[in-house]
Amino acid sequence: PELVEIEVRFGESLYDIARWSGLQMEDIEALNAIDLRDGLKGGQLLLLPLGKDDFAQLQSRRADFADSRVDRYMKRRGGLADVQTYRMRTGDTVWDVARENGRLPLWVVSAFNADVDLDRVGIGADLRLPVPGDSVEGPPPAPHAPAPATPIGL
């Protein structure tokens, strides 16, 4: 097998990567000089001894995990109501934009912007932001018609 480099995505653990790749956690730990107790961070680079087919299988399993995680999150939030585009302005951070637009975790924003390096988003860049169903105001309640007046004593 060759050594391939992967970038850890938000929410992935060493256990997940070991399971998806068929490697032992201890082997990944030793190869990358990391400590099992420290956990992984989004953006961290790891070397893995994988052949071409094993690497393709790892990537497929990672994609399935990411999709199901986003699906479960959106379901808990009332489903996906819409996807909106937000143009970054002076002073914006992805963290603030995510918080102010549906209180979204960064890993969800990342999933909807897989082609964007969220650490290097500049002014004028467009971000796709999911709109969870629980953040959409429903239609205003129908007005209640007053009860018909009932004549007293007639």
How would you summarize this macromolecular structure in one to three sentences?
It is built from 5 helices and 4 strands, in the order βααβαβααβ. It has 154 residues and is an alpha+beta fold.
Q: Would you mind describing this structure in some detail?
A:
With 154 residues, the protein is an alpha+beta fold. 36% of the residues lie in helices and 18% in strands. It contains 5 helices and 4 strands. It has a two-stranded antiparallel ribbon. The longest helix is centred in the middle third of the chain and has 25 residues, at 52-76.
Question: Strand count, sense and closure of the main sheet?
Answer: 2 strands, antiparallel
| N-to-C series of helices and strands | EHHEHEHHE
Quaternary state reads single chain
Strand content: 15-25%
Helix-strand category? alpha+beta
Mean pLDDT: 89
Element layout with pairings:
Layout: E1 2-7, H1 14-21, H2 25-32, E2 45-50, H3 52-76, E3 80-87, H4 94-100, H5 106-112, E4 126-132
Antiparallel strand pairs: 1-2, 3-4
Observed structural traits:
154 residues; alpha+beta; two-stranded antiparallel sheet; two-stranded antiparallel ribbon; 4 strands; elongated
